[in-house]
Amino acid sequence: MIVGVPREIKDNEYRVAIVPAGVTALTDRGHKVLVEQGAGTGSGVSDEDYARAGAEMVSDPREIWAKAELIMKIKEPLPSEHSLMRYGQTVFTYLHLASDRVLTEAVLKSGIIAIGYETVQLPDGSLPCLSPMSEVAGAMSAHIGAYYLSSVHGGRGVLMGAIPGVEPARVVVLGGGTVGTDAAMKAAGLGAQVTVFEVSASRMRYLAHVLPKNCTVLYSNRLYIEEALSSADLVIGAVLIPGAKTPKLITRDMLKLMKKGAVIIDVAVDQGGCIETIHPTTHSNPIYFVDGILHYGVSNMPSAFPRTSTFALTNATLPYAVKIADLGVKQAMRRDQSLKSGLNTYLGKVTHKGVADAFGLEYHDPDKLLVGVA
Questions:
Q1: Given CA atoms 323, 329, 333, 339 in this order, what sign does their dihedral have?
Q2: CA 5: distance to chain centroid?
Q3: Helix or strand or coil: residue 3?
Q4: What crossing angle do the helices spanning 306-327 and 20-27 adopt, rounded to 10°?
């Protein structure tokens, strides 16, 4: 199989979808890997590194899209790439379709087989291709929040950790999954007083055992969240429903409960965000204010630490890429239920319930589409 890895073109996106070890793993099995020149530079991987590993370096991304049967990316295809997608081609990347109608329509029109990293799900419910970036983004959110709480950046001027005689910052974390747990851990480690909201009773019990003593775990409902917002210095949105649009836990009206200069960081912005007033921003222009509350909505946060993020992510995605290359995408999905769960669209049909529900589109059962396919 021909595997193509184009350079990422999203604002300040420095990650790359494969590392030289991944190239070797594929070429040793008889596959051909096309890598765009400069694709790995931001992650500290040179063209020479790829060439030594067996990749063919290509200067024009259009050639990669035209030749590759499997496209591996980090972020969703941007508008300039929509016309490059080919019918029957497999695109394996973060998609987050439920929050982007334009992309969803382009993917359906192209007829590609779209597999989202964020919806590949193991039988235990874990998300192996999303978790590494969730860990990075969760850890980052506490540090970014501490940075923007500085008055010189528009925040309240509150230090995260306590100084004798002065209260520490109060941090609210919405969601106790991977992002929320890492965010709470890092914020607590900086000395903040942290409140985590979660809906799963078993997850709340787990968090109560693993989080530090300066963390409180509460059941997530509107009343408790409103009470917490009145004293919050930093709010971190960490809600995820795999493949579906994120529910809004904080509305515009609720912002008036917060103190001016408080900070909101919504890590769920890729899926629409759990704060009504959030919208995607970039590393070049990361923040804006609504009603005096600082909002941070960078949709590719882990790109700020691309080498760590690239190697962590490719450790998770490579086994699936190898399986697709070895077996072909259809057979690979038939044999691997977790990979099949990542299927968002198939030859112009929506195959993920969360995406179908987000836009009122017809849902097609992937099992029925794959029956009898060699």
A1: positive
A2: 19
A3: strand
A4: 10
Mean pLDDT of the 70-93 span: 97
Please tell me whether residue 140 adopts helix, strand or coil conformation. helix
The answer on 138 and 113 residing in a single domain is no
CA angle at residue 93 from 89 to 97, to 5 degrees? 95
Q: Given strand 70-72, what is the order of strands in its sheet? A: 56-58, 32-36, 2-5, 70-72, 90-93, 113-116, 343-346, 349-350
For residue 198, give the DSSP letter.
E
Instruction: Give tens-digit pLDDT for 197-234.
Output: 999 999 999 999 999 999 999 999 999 999 999 999 99
Residues 6+ apart with CB under 8 A from 291: 252, 255, 256, 277
Looking at residue 374, its pLDDT comes to 39
In sign, the C-alpha dihedral spanning 350, 355, 359, 364 is positive
Whether residues 294 and 180 fall in one domain: yes
User: Using an 8 Å Cβ cutoff, are 196 and 218 in contact?
Assistant: yes
Name the pLDDT band for 370 (thresholds 50, 70, 90). confident
3-class DSSP state of 117: helix
180 shares a domain with 52: no
Contact 232, 170 (CB under 8 A): yes
Location of structure tokens 């077996």: 327
Give the pLDDT band of residue 373 (cuts 50, 70, 90): very low
pLDDT digits (tens, 9 = 90+) for 132-184: 999 999 999 999 999 999 999 999 999 999 789 999 999 999 999 999 999 99
Per-residue pLDDT averaged across 116-121, rounded? 96
Are 362 and 356 in contact, with CB atoms under 8 Å apart? yes
Same domain, 83 and 141: no
Compute CA distances 342 → 15, 245, 323, 355, whole Å.
21, 16, 14, 12
Which CATH number characterizes residue 103's domain?
3.40.50.720
User: Within a domain: residue 221?
Assistant: yes
Catalytic machinery residues: 96, 270
